Amino acid sequence: MTQNSSSSSSESTESKPLPAWVRPVIEFSPLIIFFVVQRSTRHLDDLGGLYWATISLMITTTVSVIASRIIEKRWPALPLITGLVVGVMGGLTIYMNSELFIKIKPTIVNAILGALLLGGLVTGRLFLRNVLGKNLPMAEEGWRILTGRMVLYFFALAVGNEILRRVLNTDDWTTAKTFGFGPAGFIFLLAQSKLIERHWTGDRDGQDSKETTDSAPE
Question: Of the candidates 147, 142, 143, 87, which has an alpha carbon nearest to the alpha carbon of residue 115?
């Protein structure tokens, strides 16, 4: 009796799958709020709204990291790295009253992520699998290919930001950062659907459960 009650209580405490909209909301809320605040305060400071937008980004990013920690029961790598860089570069933006630091933040974040994945790939450690493997079961070869593509993707974002921040004004750069770099991750992942399908090792549309049922004795 005790064993049954303890097992049922442990099952009830297991985390349930989150709705699909939760993760995008947590990740993109700071970006959207940054854009709105910048547009709303661009005539109130010498940085075209980036002073107050940077403060809002630091606050919302911190909330996002804490929310990710509560939801995932661990410190997630990507939001944590982003939060640390936002804290440093945002602090320098406010202290130095210079737009340079917050504008090179995407360059630094993407360069760090690309370098980490590349270092893991060279040393035989697939960090991407450690982060996504639970929800994306794939063969090791698939993870190596996907990691290599992610390295190129992050470095491309870093180079792209360096180009855009030099040729665009603050308003246009903020727009590109929010509505260009923001959805880029979803577009990139959609483009990897064939790779994921080719190396998928999980249950395919209940095929495994069907085979189990067919082979069960009558």
Answer: 147
- Asked whether the predicted pLDDT for residue 162 surpasses 90, the reply is yes
Over the range 172-184, which residues count as b (16 or more CB within 10 Å of their CB) and which as e?
Answer: ebbebbbeebbee
Cα radius of gyration rounded to whole Å, the chain: 21
Q: Which two tokens stand for residue 29?
A: 């809320």
Could you tell me the pTM of the whole model? 0.80
- What burial class does residue 202 get, using C-beta atoms within 10 Å of its C-beta: 0-12 exposed, 13-18 middle, 19+ buried? exposed
- Which residue, of 62, 81, 98, is where some domain finishes? 98
**What pLDDT score was predicted for residue 21?**
65
- Residue 96 reports pLDDT greater than 50: yes
Q: Are residues 193 and 111 in the same domain?
A: yes
**Residues 131, 67: one domain?**
no
Collapsing DSSP to helix, strand or coil, 217 comes out as: coil
Residue type for position 143:
W
